[in-house]
Amino acid sequence: MKKFAKIVCLLTVLVMALCCFAGCGEKTNDAIKLGGTGPLTGGAAIYGNAVNNAAKIAVEEINALGGIQFEVKYEDDTHDPEKAVNAYNSLMDWNMQICLGSVTTKPGEATSVEANEDHIFYLTPSASSANVLGGVADPLTGVVDVERKDNVFQMCFMDPSQGKASAEYISSQKLGEKIAIIYKNDEVYSTGIYNSFKLEAEALGLNIVSTTTFTDDTDTDFSVQVAAAKDAGADLVFLPMYYEYAALILKEAKDIGYAPKFFGVDGMDGILTMDGFDTSLAEGVMLLTPFNADAEDERTKAFVAKYQEEYGEIPNQFAADAYDCVYAIYQALDEGEALKNEDGTYNYDITATELCDMLIEAFTASDFTFSGLTGENMTWTADGAVSKTPKGMVIQNGAYVGM
Questions:
Q1: What is the rounded CA–CA span in Å between residue 322 and residue 207?
Q2: Cβ count near 346 (within 10 Å)
């Protein structure tokens, strides 16, 4: 019996030792873990995959510099808020230290709540609702005045900012005398842009002659909306929506012989790579976006070439914003040098809470600016909103051209 007991004891010690070697003991990270959720499958997958792809490129480039090292992981949320929360929890189980947020708005609103409770730094490339930041936003200015989620930031334009900027651009460039609006009234992204556009358009004296809507239940037939715009004599149609709906509207307009100017927002980016879409239908379509893949600066050309080499397609604005997210986080950590040990190595076991406090301080500092693919000298307000200048683009011969 004593011999058996000794054997059991030895086996127990051996198992404990093996567990330590296998990772059952304290784990030491060799990189800062970045995590995010996005639609990697489903109808909005073009956005999620673009963000995932670009974040990987940024991490590869940064790691090759030999300084701070990152590891990035995206979980599929299929553009569903409940699945996004589950995906976020999986990333927390993975020991995510910094969150790249969610790609689309409704999932972003859900995961930003979780991240705020966990106090993990959250920088979304493209979830543009003011509600992602928390609190109640003024529909015209986008300013959040209560219940701010102090750890949540955006790389993309906030919805109210897009609506206001679109109205200002249309007015200053005298693009239309009679304006029709078609928007999705059960979607935060579309309604947020519409509300601020309408307010600014009225302030600028723009003549809105038709306003029609659609929902999830009516998003395949736009004959009524397009006919209303045509009957009202609109010479410009404003489309605050994602590209898949805009593609159907453009086809319907052509089918009835209606050829106004069309003006969209950043959700329209991706229409040229939509499967089965006749790109000639988008000829002349205008939009505001922070990124132009045809730009001639060296930074953009290098990114586009790398993206094409890796994934065989032109990157969209969502990809560019994600790339900038990773680099902005890297810059903030590198400039602060708080991760550096005395021997020149890095402390990758720093807690998510410590990183969060560090990055909040960096992003809200008066002297912190970041220049990337989507803007020069970008800054962030205390509300978490980014300040950068949108670019006016027009589609010509199947490509975006600066206006």
A1: 36
A2: 19
Q: Is residue 204 part of a domain?
A: yes
For residue 218, give its domain range: 160-289
Instruction: Give the H/E segment covering residue 201.
Output: helix 188-204
Once rounded to an integer, what is the mean pLDDT over residues 242-262? 95
Q: What pLDDT, on the 0 to 100 scale, is given for residue 249?
A: 97
Q: Cβ distance 34 to 72 under 8 Å? A: yes
318 phi and psi, to 5 degrees? -65, -40
Please, are residues 76 and 104 in contact by the beta-carbon 8 Å criterion?
no
Torsion sign over Cα 161, 103, 84, 80:
positive
Task: Write out the two tokens for 134.
Answer: 């928390």
Q: Quote the DSSP letter at residue 346.
A: B
- pLDDT, averaged across the chain: 88
Q: pTM score, two decimals?
A: 0.79
Q: Do residues 56 and 95 make contact, with C-beta atoms less than 8 angstroms apart?
A: no
Partners of 392 in the beta sheet?
A: 288
The three-state secondary structure class of 258 is coil
State whether residue 215 is helix, strand or coil: coil
* Contact partners, residue 206, CB within 8 Å, separation at least 6: 167, 170, 171, 176, 179
Question: Looking at the predicted structure, is the pLDDT value of residue 28 above 90?
Answer: no
Q: Looking at per-residue confidence, does 121 or 390 come out higher?
A: 121
Q: What is the structure's pLDDT at 203?
A: 95
- Of 289, 318, 334, the one marking the end of a domain is 289
Domain containing 253 — which CATH number?
3.40.50.2300
Would you say residue 49 has pLDDT above 70? yes
